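# nightly structure sweep
# worker-07 picked up a monomer target from the shared queue
# config: single-sequence mode, recycle default, output format = structure tokens
# input follows
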Amino acid sequence: MVSIPYLDKADLAPLADAAASWAALPTKYEALQREFEQRVINHLKGHWDGDAADAAFVTMGKARTEYENAATEAERIGKLLQDAHGEFAASQKQLHALLDEARDDHYKVSDDGRVEDVDPRWDSPTASASPGFADERKKKLDSLVSRLTRVLEVATAADEAASSALERDANGDSGSFNTSVYTTLDAVEADQAAALMNKKGRLSDAEITKLNLLLSANKNDPEFSRDFAVKTGGENMLSKYNELMSPPAGTTLSKAQLAQLKELKANLGTTIGTATTSDDHRKGGPDPEITKFQNDLLKAGQRDFNANPTESPYGLSGYQLTSSLMSEGKWDKDFLQDYGDALITADKNAGDAGQNPDAYWGYPRTLGTTNIGALDPMAGYMDALGHNPEASTEFFGSETTVNGEKVDHYDYLMKDRHWPEGAGYTGDPKNPNGYNNLGHALESAVTGHSYDSSPSADTPAHNQDQAALMQKLVQDVSDDGELAHDGMQDSLGRMTAEYMPDVYRGLRPDGESEEDFLPLGNSVSANFSERDITRFMYTVGQDPDGYAAISYGQTQYSAELMNYHLSHPDAYGLSDKETIYEISETGAQVDGILSLGRQDSAVQESAEGDKVFNDRLASAGDWGKSITSIGIGVGTAAITSPVGGAVAGEVAGNVSGQLIDMVVSDLERDSSDDALYASGADLESSKSAVQAQLRNAATISVAENSSGLNQAEIDTAVNNGAEAGNGYANDKSRSYAQKRG
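# output follows
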């Protein structure tokens, strides 16, 4: 591995000079060739005949070819050195930036890559004990270590590739010039990685480490990924992956070896995903080689891959292997549609034949001794959709024909399919339920961003298909609360938080017509009925993760909506006091419905129920702050700022960010009588907590916008609004949710 001191101090000027010198050689060789032709060949033509002349002219013709080959080799070496210089210079620049960042933020980076936190605030008991300080410093340290490692990996892969390319003698024993010199490091590294994947037999630990380095350094590079995939081949790639993840019985792997294989799974999945998207912007349409690679993966779906046939007659199917890799990276939208159609067809055909997914994808198939992967291919496929919002929205809005029957993708996965239980089926001991993966796919489908990233001011406005799917989901869960399956409530909660403007409209009698009070900007409205959104939030609020996400969504939206209207007093025409009352009323409705759901949940009724809910609320604080960048909703940047998204992204979240900090700080305190937000054991405590949140939001907004309201007026508006909202929440919950049959 290239070291930090070496990359930090490396003088790249000689390499740049060498690249320039080699790049200049072709012109010199071409001049020598012309001079040779003019002074020797042309001079002798017509003046020399006979056998000796014929032989000489043949030799001179070969010499002319050598001049051409020399020029070609020099040109290619020049390009290779230039590419190497660009790679090293980019890595060095990134390293310098990281070292500066570490120094400015009081982290010490040692020569061996260790990072130490030397912030002077650790010497102050008061400062170091402040809420969130230790977590914040740890996250920054981990981020620095990760980015430093990444830079060194890229530099190391480039260094080894350049060395290999320059030492390579493609001509063997021939004394001729080499016209097949590599011109890019990507090509070298793709060949090296493909050679390892194509090697017969198991790879050694050193070879796995080398393959990991190559893939990690280049997994997001379209050129490398494309060449690697094409040179490896679809079926061969699955076969080698299966072989690596399924060592022979009796093989004992160390923790380090298992970690290497888990890393390889992630790197390989991301690389292949990048390969499938490498021709997305290609002139002339799809790359035929990538199309063939994708088709090979589809054909391999039903085939079994058995790494150890002498030990078991059964192996994993191509669907299981491909889906295992699909959980990483971003895969091509069109391929995901074709793959999903094929997978649902196989899944439903098995069910129609009497085999549920447990049996069809499970025993006697096993993951092997490494236990890496997932038996249920639908789990990995759902995560692939979760990383590609465009693909997931399209998929859940379409259908597949199976044996002449139309199978709606959404209905099949949400209502009809039996999802196997167990970590072996999902590949995730923390989430042994495929509904968790289904939640990821639905989350990206309705929000427009990957499930494991947060929305921003640049997130596209909700479109018609996204809003329609969210509306259908809310209605279905309203009609049948069992559809809010265990494992997906955290996703349902986050989805709801991002549709909070639509939630507020649904709870207000004339919400759909209140475009000025609850603006959607460019987003298409998901029209929730009062009954449906009440039942939905009551149901999702019974889960601690769902409760936490919607609660932060309400906190964020109420705070930013107050700030928006107090800074744009003409947007709706209410007085500041009336504005605070109206927003407090609807915010308290949301919180009240959630609180009633929480109180009626089996979790809350347990001995540790209150602690479980509050712990989840505290741990979700970072996510809560992440959504503050969307201001008063996705697609509203043009409303919140006359100059659009960039400025809106900077100013949005100022109020709600402060408010969420207050909530998290209170939750992290020791249990005490004055820990207001941490008290959720009864409805009165919940009412007091939401009133405190709304009061703080109003107070900050009034101060930021120089409103003339005094604190007594703010308190009256908030308390009266919240009291009314809690009453509405109680009435609606009892009418719509608690009495439904």
